[in-house]
Amino acid sequence: MNRSRSALILAGMLTAGMALVACSSTSSEPVAPTATPSPTASATLIGGMTECTGAIIEPAVQAELAKDVQLMSFNDLSCADGWAVAGVTIGDGEHGAPTSFIFEQEGQFWIPKEQSAVCGTIDFSATPVTRPADAQVPDELFEAGCLT
User: What is the pTM of this model?
Assistant: First the structure.
């Protein structure tokens, strides 16, 4: 195997490894990558794009929950333009509250995002509340992801 191909494969493996570490975090804070992939690395080396399905998103939601919080039900999933909003009920197993989790697609991974970081500067005094210009979440997911 030539050195160029080896370097590309190594860059792809490092990128995939960083994404797995980011997805396994139990912190509710976004995880920043610790290194950037080589500019010569090809996205096709990582394995393509992920799908937006409950079977794929539900484990990502589980990974974001605190130790003492349970996923009581996975209620709905909306997807648009590389973003996903999962409507779930979380609680202690007996008492639950509905909430939403926002994810952004990065290759074959769904990366958790904080509402405060991706919903923009929301004017809650406006009626009706509308999506602000600085929101990153697509318009069709704004209400489900940012107003719940």
Answer: 0.67
